[in-house]
Amino acid sequence: MTDQDVLLPELRRSLVDAAPGRHRRRRRRRTVVAALSAAAAVAVVVVGTAPWAGDDAVDVATVDRPGEDVQVLGEETDEVLLLDDGYDGVLAVDLDTGVAARWSLPGQRPGDQPFRLRRVGDRLVVGWGEIWAVDYDGSDPQRLGEATIFLPADDEHVWLIDWDGGRIGSGDVTYSLVDLDGNVVGSAPGVPDASPVIGVGDRLVLQTDDGLDLWDLDAGAVVDDVGSDTSVALDSDGEHLVHCLADCGIVTVENVDTGVEWSMSPGFEGATGYVDAAVAPGGTMVAAATRGLAGLEVAMVDRRVGSTQNWDDDLAIAAWAPDGDAAYVVERSYGRDTTALGRIGVEDETMIGTARETMFASAVLPVAGAVSAVVADAGDVPILGELPIGAEADCPAPTVYPAEPREPCAFRLDLSPSPAGG
User: I want to staple 373 with a disulfide (CB 3.0 to 4.6 A). Which of 237, 280, 330, 344 is the partner?
Assistant: First the structure.
């Protein structure tokens, strides 16, 4: 029996249902998530060094890399899209060459934890039961600690949330803030009957029956509330919290230190609200994927910078490039055949008047399986330019949780136009 086999049937179906994103599932099914029987049970995870990691540099000239590079979005981005495959690794797509690759991430495993794949600084944080930080290519794994789940805090830290019953909501809970070397910055008993949903630096946002509370590490207690009694947390950059009301018809970005906030509402005709939102570095912009007619909007301090409709679907992920110069919308394509994505370039954060003319690029990838997504700078993922390129059939998507890390493999995406009527 695999880890996925022990998920509650309702939660397992939620990965492929056309339901809103994780924040709405957590709110509406709070009692179900709190009663997760084994999806987040503490277990010992055997983690080794990625099989391709080593000290020897790769001589690219000797690597077989047939075919021609193709820009996926029709423009140069210098970015790589990392799609969580729902099992133990990623599908990485070089958007400037059309090369895709699959590899395992030490410490990653199947499950329905709130955050499966998160970029923290220039590392990825993964896992449940045991939490790990790894490089984008899965090398240099660092154990951060034992915990039921992790939550992002800022670019240098994550929160480890550990219930002593080994399951979400089971028994007493401890909140620990750790750095990417696993050093504990601080730890304190948690709040009963509250669900930690995201970190904002050395504070935690707790979902309660009355809305969102702000818990502070130094005080070891709740120090404030956020939003209203129907607010739901979406994202954080360590200083700013993105949250929305009820069905996310309005998305709000709030500085939790000053209380200063600004909001945006859908600009698409037919859009009924938002399904996901992500704040840009610095908190000056937010990218929000719309629900109803799924697309991407980018707004800056209540002024819409750019927007586009993309596809008719309610499953979408909003994400930013590391330097904040581009926002992405990515289809949640687990259980599907393709993955739609779009990109809005935001070259200058001071853009206001001419920003509505910002170019939008989109594409449909002939691969699927995305549960979550991270955008990385291409220079930080050199393995995509080093792996030999073979046939896609020799680099299949995982269908079971493997006992050993999979060897990395690469192939070129078939980006040729589909036949008319196909």
Answer: 330
